[in-house]
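Batch manifest, entry 17 of 40.
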Amino acid sequence: MDLGFLEPLTEQTTEMWVAFVKMLPLFGIALVVLFMTSVVNKVAKFLLGKILDKSQLRASLKSLFSTLIGIAIWVLGVLIAMAVIMPSLTPAKILAGLGLGSIAIGFAFQDIFENFLAGIMIMLRRNMRIGDFIECEGMLGKIEKINIRDTQLRQSDNQLIMVPNSILFKNPVYILTESKKRRFDLVCGVSYDTDLEKAEKVILKALEGLDLLDKKQEVQVFASEFNSSSVDFTIRWWAESKPVDLFKSRAQVIKSVKAALDKAGIEIPFPYVTHTYKEEMPVAPIRFKEAKARQVKKKA
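Output type: structure tokens
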């Protein structure tokens, strides 16, 4: 049987194997280059960290500079390793290849690049710092870390949320602790037969001297609304801006106002309905003993 048609295939396989063996030293050198790149990256980040620790930069900016330095070092190291393996590969050819492939890569990794750029923009923000409490799209938590792709939020119940940076960049973000002090509101209702001037004075008196309220800011009380079962007062005060401080100061205000209104004989009403009839409705008097006897018969 003639196997002459296998000779070209055998020759090509042999040539490829010889070429691969010749390139093994180049692969070894490329691995050394990548290892040295890793070492240089760690040393550069360590030295940069020492320098940045002495500066007044925010933690998010320090993280951004460290990440960008790492990316630049690794890109340079990979390009050198590729040039070692393929000496004919010039910077011009690499840039041309990147230009042609960038469109396909851009479509394939659109979300990653979007979060990457959003992460850089977030790190450059002045008002959004690590340690701030923020609220965005129904998510509330403390910023623990801002990465290039996502931001870590720690909720008050200790759950961790990984939020893509594009969400924080595209949507409104409420920075609750941008200032140390915040204003808080509380609605308190009194019955319709209450003297509103007296109720206002009682509430203001109740809030005097509370230690969790900011003494530099005036406490305000306004009669704000006619509700279904009450006349509502809006109480406004200033306190520390953290969520836990909100709960503490609100609890202190509620307890103090409730005690003061009770002491003054002012009712805090619950919802109830009053029925009014155009004509008088006859009501037959029922004696207590007769009513009790009827109940006993029904049970029997």
